[in-house]
Amino acid sequence: MPGGTRTGTDSYQATDVAYPGPVDRPRRLRTTPAMRRLVAQTRLHPADLVLPVFVRDGISEPAPISSMPGVLQHTPDSLVEAAREAIDLGVGGIMVFGVPRDVDKDAVGSAGLAPYGVLNAALRRLRDELGDETVLMSDLCLDEFTDHGHCGVLDDAGRVDNDATLQVYAQMAVAQARAGAHVVGPSGMMDGQVAVVRAALDAAGHQDVAVLAYTAKYASAAYGPFREAVASTLKGDRSTYQQDPANRTESLRELRLDLAQGADLVMVKPALPYLDVLADVAAVADVPVAAYQVSGEYLMIEAAAANGWLDRDRMVLETLTSIRRAGAQLILTYYAVHAARLLGGRVGA
Ligand code: PBG
């Protein structure tokens, strides 16, 4: 071998002759699109995506959400159309959030329990029209329905009362199951919520309704645009029940508790700023792990793309791929339909 001694790795014993080049060339596996596709370790598929949707009471036309360009508050009719579009594109499921009229909000969130409240009515309509064609999921939380905007009921001192809230979640879970949800998603971060929801569902004969636990849910500024989407009245923040962004191990504790309480699926939220947490959870969970690319993550891409500062479609696919690579099997994303379209040419690739 001219030019010195190749050692079988990239280490090279320099001599006075020209360097012959590296032995190991990782770039060989990047040479063509077909080669890159062959060796790709992470694939996106529309079936792994879940579309979060909003249904709002008292509107006759779908309403845009200014903080979430491209996302709508739906009427029951437009919600069914949006769900059908998602199904046609192969999207795996939909997660429904209800937005009641202001006059229907109260201290305990009664509109979330009412069988014909906005969310339960929408679930009933979707299940009637779509049957088992998709997986119908419902947000199980009080913040959209309370006049104070917190995820639970308050005690006399104005604090969120964990155990009193659990009683309301139990009723809400049964109401959502009766309305047709295949999966309920308790998102309020009350201690013991999965156990209470599971017991209530079982007692009411809904053994087949699954629980998607919001297991590691951080108190994040990235929920800002969502608060407009659900017309939230929250003052203050949720730091006494959602997790501190500074903490990592705590998510493993939350996971252990949720699994012990019977969670069928677990979720990490937000997604992109918490890939370390997602990887931790995915490494040990023995149920499917989901991640939620939340409203603020969506908005950051939209705002930058609207300014021409980055390529929206590449950013969408890259962020979703990264969330999958870190360990999410399922991703809740406002881009579910858009991404399914982008993937159209390479589904199953
Ligand atoms: C609570 C809930 C929130 C989100 C999903 N479920 C808001 C919150 O915790 O403050 C946020 C989702 C998003 O930002 O896209 N019902």
Features:
8-stranded parallel barrel; 349 residues; binds ligand PBG; globular; alpha/beta; single chain; 11 helices; two-stranded antiparallel sheet
Overall outline: globular
Helix percent reads 25-40%
What ligands can be seen in this structure?
ligand PBG
Order of helices and strands: EEHEEEHEHEHEHEHHEHEHHEH
Note the gap between the termini.
Answer: 42 Å
Radius of gyration: 23 Å
Total strands: the figure is: 12
Briefly note the structural class of the backbone: alpha/beta
Indicate the low-confidence ranges by residue numbers: none
Specify the oligomeric state.
single chain
**Order of strands, widest sheet:** 3-6-7-8-9-10-11-12
Q: DSSP helix count?
A: 11
Average pLDDT reading:
94
Task: Report the β-strand fraction as a percent range.
Answer: 15-25%
- Main β-sheet: number of strands, strand sense, barrel status? 8 strands, parallel, barrel
Structure characterization notes:
With 349 residues, the chain is of the alpha/beta class. It is built from eleven helices and twelve strands. The chain has helices spanning 33-39, 76-88, 118-130, 162-179, 193-203, 224-229, 249-260, 275-284, 295-306, 312-326, 336-343; strands at 5-6, 12-13, 49-56, 63-64, 72-74, 93-99, 135-140, 183-186, 210-217, 265-269, 289-293, 330-333. The strands form two sheets. It has an eight-stranded parallel beta barrel with strand order 3-6-7-8-9-10-11-12, surrounded by nine helices. Strands 1-2 form a two-stranded antiparallel sheet. Helix 2 (76-88) crosses helix 3 and helix 3 packs parallel to helix 4 (162-179). The mean pLDDT is 94. Ligand PBG binds next to loops.
